[in-house]
Design a protein that fits this description.
26% of the residues lie in helices and 23% in strands. The longest helix is centred in the last third of the chain and has 25 residues. The protein is globular and about 45 Å long. The mean pLDDT is 94. The protein binds hypoxanthine.
Length: 262
C-alpha cells in the first residue's frame, strides 16, 4: 500500500515522467474526489497522486471536495501527504518563483466543511502546529540537497476565493502576520490531521499579492510561474520523497488521542 500521497495544485495536474502503475477511482461517503488517484512508482517508492482541481482544472478552490480527497488518500493507505499549491506573496522578501515551506496557517475561508466529525462524535484536534514537523524537515533538507533556496517558515493565510483579494485585505493579512496567501490549504490540512495523516505544503509564490506591486492579478501569470518552476518543484518533491522515513515519530499519527469529547 502506498504510504505517500501527493496533491498537485494549480498548474500541477500530473507528475513528471514516473512509472504509472494504475489508476484508482475511489468512492467515498462524502462523494467523489477531484479525480482518479494515480498510483506511481517514484525511484522505487510507491506514491499516490491526485490533482486537487481535477486533471482539466475544472474545480475551483471553494468547490473542491476536500473531505472526499482526504478520505480517498486514507482509504488507499496514505499516511504522508505532500501538498503543492500556488500562493501570492505578501512578505516583501518573496518574489514569483520562490518556494515557501509554511509552518503556520490563518484560516479565512467560509462555508467549507472543515471536519469529518460533524455528526455524533465531537473531536477537537490539536492544530497548534498545522504542518507535520517531519515533512517540513524533509522539504527543507531536500531543498538544501537540490540547492534550491526556500523560505523555511511562513504563515499561509487561506482565503475562500475564487476571486483574488483586495489591496485592503492583503494589507490586513500582512498586519496579522501572513507571508503568503492561497486558497486551498484549508480545510485540507485540518482534515488530514483528523485523519491522522501527516501533511506538509510546498507553496510556490506565483505573483505579488494584491497591492504589493501595481497591476492586475491574472491567472495567466499564476500558471506561467508554476510552469517555469516545475523543474525545481519536481526536483524538490522527488528528493523529499526519498528522505521520508518509514516510521513516523511526529504527533500527527496520534492526532485523535485525547481529542474526543465524552
Ligand atoms: N491570492 C490567493 N491565492 C493565490 C494567489 C493570490 O494572490 N496567487 C496564487 N494563488
Amino acid at each position: 500500500m502506498p504510504a505517500i500521497g501527493i496533491i498537485g495544485g494549480s498548474g500541477v495536474y500530473r507528475m513528471p515522467p514516473v512509472e504509472l502503475i494504475r489508476e484508482e477511482a475511489v468512492d467515498t461517503p462524502y462523494g467523489a474526489p477531484s479525480d482518479t488517484y494515480k498510483i506511481l512508482k517514484i525511484s522505487g517508492i510507491e506514491a499516490v497522486f491526485l490533482a486537487r482541481h481535477g486533471s482539466g482544472h475544472t474545480i475551483p478552490p471553494h468547490k473542491v471536495n476536500y473531505r472526499a480527497n482526504i478520505w480517498g488518500f486514507k482509504s488507499l493507505g496514505v499516511n504522508r501527504l505532500l501538498s503543492m499549491g500556488a500562493v501570492g506573496g505578501l512578505n516583501t522578501l518573496l518574489w514569483p518563483g520562490d518556494i515557501v515551506v509554511a509552518d503556520q496557517i490563518i484560516d479565512m475561508t467560509t462555508g467549507r466543511t472543515s471536519t469529518f466529525y460533524d455528526k455524533d462524535e465531537v473531536y477537537h484536534v490539536d492544530f497548534s502546529e498545522p504542518f507535520c514537523p517531519e515533512l517540513r524537515a524533509a522539504f527543507i533538507e531536500a531543498a538544501a540537497a537540490v540547492e534550491l533556496p526556500v523560505l523555511t517558515r511562513g504563515t499561509y493565510v487561506c482565503t475562500n476565493g475564487p476571486r483574488f483579494e483586495t489591496r485592503a485585505e492583503i494589507r490586513y493579512y500582512s498586519i496579522i502576520g501572513a507571508d503568503v496567501v492561497g486558497m486551498t490549504a484549508m480545510p485540507e490540512a485540518v482534515l488530514a490531521r483528523e485523519a491522522e495523516i501527516c501533511y506538509g505544503t510546498i507553496a510556490t509564490v506565483t505573483n505579488f499579492a494584491a497591492g504589493i506591486s501595481t497591476g492586475k492579478l491574472t491567472t495567466t501569470e499564476v500558471i506561467e510561474t508554476i510552469n517555469k518552476s516545475s523543474i525545481n518543484l519536481n526536483a524538490l518533491l522527488l528528493r523529499a520523497i526519498s528522505l521520508i522515513k518509514a516510521q513516523r515519530h511526529c504527533p500527527c499519527k496520534d492526532a485523535l488521542k485525547d481529542a474526543k469529547l465524552g
